Structures are given as structure tokens and as C-alpha cells.
Amino acid sequence: MSSKYYLTDVDTEEKSIYCHHDLMGELLIPEHSHKKAQFLYTEGGVVYVRTDSHTYFLPARHFIWIPAGVRHSIHPSSENVMMRNLYFPVEQNEDAFYEREGIYPVNDLILNLLLYTNRWNGNLQKETKNYIVASALKVLLADTAQESLSLSLPMPKDKRLGKVVDYITKNLDKNLLFAEVAAKFGFSTRTLHRLFTKDLGMPFIRFFTICRMLRAIELLAEKQMPVSEIALAVGYSSLPTFSNTFYKLLGSRPTEYINGKNILGA
Prior knowledge:
- By secondary structure, this protein is of the alpha+beta class.
- It contains ten helices and eleven strands.
- The chain has helices at about 5-10, 110-115, 130-145, 160-170, 180-185, 190-200, 205-220, 225-235, 240-250, 255-260, and strands spanning about 15-25, 30, 35-45, 45-50, 55-60, 60-65, 70-75, 80-90, 100-105, 120-125, 150-155.
């Protein structure tokens, strides 16, 4: 798949819904934007979507909504990740849902509509059956999506905090204590706490937990380790505690995530 497709074909017809389903085929879709909003659903691995302010982790059986005009790049974990894209023109007086970036689980109703669109590609014209089905899917997104899942990490602006974040991501299997991390990088606990909340919008423990769970999602997608070993790899000696933490973030247990259905192989 060429990056040219992303920069040209999507917006060739202002009023159409553009549809594209395919293998990623490459490990980077360079930074770009569209005049249309993007629905992206994936299977077969994790996809990273980077905007100016966040890195989003899009696991299987979830979708990301990217509003029109938002610059982003796409980084699949493998060239063999399957993706499903629908690009929607912006309508007047739309629900506020469509103005926000976010990641949401896909329910059975949306899954069935996606399966119906399995072999579509190109521009869907107004008043055609395919356009009507795709439009119904868009309406359902706002009607059925709950709060966006915390599957994103803000990018630290402060260079000092960037070094702390790098250290955290390289030591997810360890029991990092906030006071010890602060001392290691020459901060008081009060100063480092203020940096986390001001720059990243969350305290240390939440950032650390999200990092751990996102790494767990990657390992689960690879299907090379049992869940018990994945729990240890991200610092949880208790499997129930790991499972409960994972559930709070994704709304499913690690075992359920592994065994979820794959509609793109249909």
C-alpha cells in the first residue's frame, strides 16, 4: 500500500464515503491528514497511531476515530495487520463524539455491519445502498460508544520528564516506587508529581499502569506466551490482579482478548 493513497484518493470526492480494506503492507504510513474523518479498525496485531499530542495503541477488535484535519501517522506492529478504513465527510451539526479522537471497543452490531462491507473499496456515492449502510454504521458509533478507553499515552514536552518516561517504559517488569524514581533523576517527589500531572495529565502510578497494560496487549497479540508469563513480564506476580487491571482498561479479561473473533478473516 502506498502512502500516496492516503494523501490523494480519500478526498477526491468531497461528498462520498471512502472505503478501503486491506493488509497494512508496510510498517509506516507517514504523517498526513484528511478532509474527511477516519474510522480505523484492525485485526492481527497492534497499530500505533501518533498525533501531535498522543500515541494511541489500537488493539484488535477496537476502533479509533480520527476527526477530520488531525495530522497523524500509522505504525502497525506487523505488515500483516489487517485494517478496515471508512472515511466520512464532515456534516453540519454533528454529535460532539465526531470531534474527538478516541479508541472504543467494537460491539457485535458494528462487527456485523463491518462484515457486510468486507469487499467494498473506493468511493461510496450518496443514496446508494452501500452509502446508506456505511452512514448507519457512523450513526451507531456515537450511539453505542461509551467513554473512550485509556489506550493512549501523552507525549512529554519537558525533556527531563522524557528521560523518566523512557526509564519507566524500559522497566515495566520491575516494582518501581515513585520516591525512588524521583531520587534517581534528581527530583523531589513533589516536583516530579507536579511534572506528571501538568505535562502528562495524570499521576505517575496511572501512567505506569497504562504503560504496563499496553505492553501486555502487545504480548497477548503476539500469542507467544501464556497469560501467566505475560503478567510477570509486566510486573504482576498475582494473575488475578493483572486480570482485574486489564479488565478495567479494556473491558475484557486477557483470556477473552486472546480468544476474540476475527471478522477480517471471514
